[in-house]
């Protein structure tokens, strides 16, 4: 897997939030996107995830464009099958059981349900015993792991997480970071995490810092 | 998407159950009204076919028609035997059928008549033969099927016209013998037991010249004995509705004479229609009633009340639709997050739209199915617990094509109710929602 982010620019009105951001992530690589609040981390991730469109530049996975100023149905399709996303606020569907949440994600993103992969992921994340529970019946930590499981069971090429640990204490921050790293390795996906929490820096070989709309390696 | 729609419905069981119930009640009402309307009308038409005029004792003309054509109500009274000869002798009449009512067997009316009654309903004997001798009887198809009566079997009539009229009022002394069973006709005759008029007289200890002398009639007036047969006539000291008949018999005639309950008349030519009713009503103590007029009046009375109920039921269905709309609309907000997420995971706008639409549709379908079952179960219960319903020939599981239309209409209501919330959901902007905290 090769993620190629190429000269992404984005403005809100007259304020330029991203001014030509470029970086790349090669197969199985893991990177942290650091930056103070308001620096545009979420904006960048949203563009990669297809939630927002860039004003300039493009994002490609394995040379297939997944985001550009004029995104197409084809880029939607590639993005859908390539990305696993862990949202900061988890976003589990509360009407469905944990297991049904994972199945729904698989159905939508890969077109088929793979129970073996679900079992394995639940097992690794230590929540198999909660598979039948509804999201609101889960503890905060369990729900966090459930959200990771949902991003992982679609066998993504790239696992993306925006502020996955902002609500967690030091101990749980460490655990979640370790789990994300481990699960990404298990499914052979790259990992990209955006956070303002530089405690996470120690876990990653490669850190980028977003500042004044520009990206610096550090 | 269906699983998701159902999961959403199960997620708020109270609202869902309420909405389903609302629709179910309205569907049940509509189906019941339809069933009553169509079955009554069909039944009325079929049973009254071939009867131009009914002649009976004075009283309510509707009651006369109900009792002697449809065999539902109590008779208005008795008429003299001589009326039969009078009308049969008239050149303007075609068929004149005598009817003598009074008893039942397990709720099925025993009708004293002759073979012209079979002609009227185009009934044919499926097994056995026509009654000939006194106390021989033939059974309508439904009677035979439901009582399990066989040829040659004896049965005893009870006084009154339905099973619940009185339990211990049997005519044990005068058992009938089943000599024939009729083929099903789909008319009221299926639910009747036919015998000769004379047999009905015999049961009630009325002397008649067919096989008895007239004898001293005063002896019979006190219901003590029936000389010829030599058995106690204990069938007559009972029952309220019988009391009026007895009283009438005693006061008006002070003796038991061979009488009839009604005559079913058809005309030979148009002049009869003008002359005969006028003659009966003016020159005799009897009345003449026209089935077509009475049933039309009954149906229009029924029609007005059915119409009111129908409007109410549709109103209820509309409220059900509104309830679905409110539920889905108010849900849309709290579900925006979910739906935005589904969009990001690759669900198309069409899929989101159909999820919401399905929710409305599933609710409506559940309501329609439940209502339909409810209506037909109620019909079954009604049939099993009220003899009148059976006598009306109300069948429980005979769907009418318009029921399909009702169900379709309710499904459309469910769908229409869901369209606006579904359109709203289609327009969610996943980015705006997902980047929002919480
Ligand atoms: N829809 C919008 N309209 C206008 N301005 C916006 C919009 N979304 C974000 N911004 C602005 O763009 C800048 C970058 O926002 P973004 O959410 O990307 O920051 P962030 O790095 O994720 O911050 P945090 O760490 O607090 O999550 C902020 O100044 C924000 O106010
Ligand atoms: Mg952010």
Plain-language structure description:
The complex is a heterodimer of chains A (218) and B (438). In chain A, the strands form 2 sheets. A 6-stranded mixed β-sheet of chain A has the order 6-7-8-3-9-10, with helices on both faces. A 4-stranded antiparallel β-sheet of chain A has the order 2-1-4-5. With 218 residues, chain A is of the alpha/beta class. The radius of gyration of chain A is 17 Å and the shape is globular. Chain A has helices spanning 41-49, 73-82, 98-110, 115-124, 140-152, 170-186; strands at 3-12, 15-25, 30-34, 56-61, 64-67, 83-86, 158-162, 190-195, 206-211, 214-217. In chain A, α3 (98-110) runs parallel beside α5 (140-152) and α5 packs parallel to α6 (170-186). Chain B folds into 2 domains: 2-43 and 305-437, no CATH class; 53-206 and 257-289, no CATH class. Chain B is built from 15 helices and 15 strands. In chain B, strands 1, 3, 4, 5, 6, 7, 8, 9, 10, 14 and 15 form an 11-stranded mixed β-sheet that branches. In chain B, strands 2-13 form a two-stranded antiparallel sheet. Chain B is elongated. Classes of the chains: A alpha/beta (218), B alpha+beta (438). The interface between A and B is medium-sized, with 25 and 20 residues. The structure holds adenosine-5'-triphosphate and magnesium ion (MG). The site of magnesium ion has 4 residues of chain A, from α1.
Ordered list of secondary-structure elements with their pairings:
The complex is a heterodimer of chains A (218) and B (438).
Chain A: E1 3-12, E2 15-25, E3 30-34, H1 41-49, E4 56-61, E5 64-67, H2 73-82, E6 83-86, H3 98-110, H4 115-124, H5 140-152, E7 158-162, H6 170-186, E8 190-195, E9 206-211, E10 214-217
Parallel strand pairs in A: 3-8, 3-9, 6-7, 7-8
Antiparallel strand pairs in A: 1-2, 1-4, 4-5, 9-10
Chain B: H1 2-11, H2 13-48, E1 53-57, H3 61-68, E2 79-80, H4 82-88, E3 93-105, E4 108-113, H5 115-120, E5 125-128, E6 136-139, H6 141-147, E7 154-155, E8 158-159, E9 176-182, E10 192-196, H7 197-203, H8 218-221, E11 225-226, E12 231-232, H9 240-253, E13 259-260, E14 262-267, H10 270-283, E15 286-289, H11 291-344, H12 349-385, H13 387-391, H14 401-426, H15 430-434
Parallel strand pairs in B: 4-10, 6-9
Antiparallel strand pairs in B: 1-14, 1-15, 2-13, 3-4, 3-8, 3-14, 5-9, 6-10, 7-9, 11-12
Helix pairs in contact in B: 1-12, 2-11, 2-12, 2-14, 11-12, 11-14, 12-14
Bound molecules: adenosine-5'-triphosphate and magnesium ion.
């Amino acid at each position: 897997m090769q993620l190629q982010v190429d000269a992404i620019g984005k403005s809100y009105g007259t304020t330029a939030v991203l001014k030509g951001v470029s970086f790349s992530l090669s197969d199985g690589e893991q990177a942290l996107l650091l930056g103070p609040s308001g620096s545009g981390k979420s904006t960048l991730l949203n563009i990669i995830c297809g939630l927002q469109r860039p004003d300039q530049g493009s994002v490609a996975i394995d040379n297939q464009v997944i985001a550009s100023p004029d995104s197409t149905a084809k880029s939607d399709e590639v993005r859908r099958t390539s990305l696993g996303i862990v949202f900061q606020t988890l976003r589990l569907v509360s009407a469905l059981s944990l297991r049904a949440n994972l199945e729904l994600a698989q159905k939508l993103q890969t077109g088929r349900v793979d129970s073996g992969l679900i079992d394995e992921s639940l097992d690794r994340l230590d929540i198999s015993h909660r598979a039948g529970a509804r999201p609101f019946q889960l503890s905060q930590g369990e729900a966090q792991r459930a959200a990771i499981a949902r991003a992982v069971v679609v066998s993504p090429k790239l696992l993306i997480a925006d502020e996955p640990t902002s609500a967690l204490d030091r101990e749980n921050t460490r655990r979640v970071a370790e789990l994300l790293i481990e699960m990404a390795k298990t499914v052979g996906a790259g990992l990209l995490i955006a956070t303002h929490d530089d405690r996470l820096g120690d876990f990653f070989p490669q850190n980028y810092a977003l500042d004044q709309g520009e990206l610096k390696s550090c | 998407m269906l699983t998701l729609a159902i999961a959403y419905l199960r997620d708020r069981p109270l609202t869902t159950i309420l909405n389903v119930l609302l629709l179910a009640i309205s569907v049940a009402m509509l189906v019941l009204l339809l069933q009553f309307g169509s079955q009554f009308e069909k039944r009325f038409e079929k049973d009254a076919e071939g009867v131009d005029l009914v002649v009976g004792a004075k009283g309510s003309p509707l009651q006369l028609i109900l009792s002697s054509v449809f065999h539902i109500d109590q008779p208005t009274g008795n008429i003299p035997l001589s009326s039969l000869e009078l009308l049969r002798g008239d050149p303007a009449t075609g068929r004149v059928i005598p009817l003598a009512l009074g008893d039942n067997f397990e709720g099925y009316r025993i009708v004293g008549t002759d073979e012209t009654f079979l002609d009227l309903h185009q009934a044919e004997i499926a097994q056995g033969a026509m009654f000939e001798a006194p106390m021989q009887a033939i059974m309508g198809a439904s009677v035979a099927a439901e009582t399990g009566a066989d040829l040659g079997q004896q049965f005893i009539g009870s006084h009154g016209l339905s099973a619940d009229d009185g339990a211990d009022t049997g005519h044990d002394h005068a058992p009938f013998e089943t000599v024939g069973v009729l083929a099903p006709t789909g008319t009221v005759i299926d639910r009747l037991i036919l015998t000769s008029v004379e047999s009905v007289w015999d049961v009630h200890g009325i002397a008649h010249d067919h096989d008895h002398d007239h004898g001293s009639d005063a002896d019979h007036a006190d219901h003590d004995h029936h000389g010829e047969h030599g058995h106690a006539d204990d069938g007559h000291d009972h029952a309220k509705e019988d009391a009026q008949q007895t009283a009438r018999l005693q006061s008006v005639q002070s003796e038991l004479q061979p009488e009839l309950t009604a005559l079913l008349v058809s005309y030979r030519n148009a002049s009869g229609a003008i002359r005969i009713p006028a003659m009966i009503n003016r020159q005799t103590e009897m009345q003449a009633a026209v089935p077509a007029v009475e049933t039309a009046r009954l149906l229009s009375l029924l029609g007005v009340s059915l119409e009111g109920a129908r409007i109410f039921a549709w109103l209820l269905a509309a409220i059900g639709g509104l309830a679905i709309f409110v539920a889905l609309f108010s849900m849309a907000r709290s579900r925006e997050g979910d739906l935005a997420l589904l969009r990001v995971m690759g669900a198309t706008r069409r899929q989101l739209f159909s999820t919401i639409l399905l929710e409305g549709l599933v609710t409506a379908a559940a309501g329609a199915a439940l209502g339909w079952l409810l209506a037909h179960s109620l019909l079954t219960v009604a049939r099993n617990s009220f003899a009148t319903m059976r006598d009306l020939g109300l069948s429980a599981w005979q769907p009418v094509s318009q029921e399909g239309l009702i169900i379709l209409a309710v499904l459309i209501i469910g769908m229409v109710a869901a369209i606006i919330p579904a359109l709203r959901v289609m327009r969610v902007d996943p980015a705006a929602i997902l980047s929002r905290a919480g």
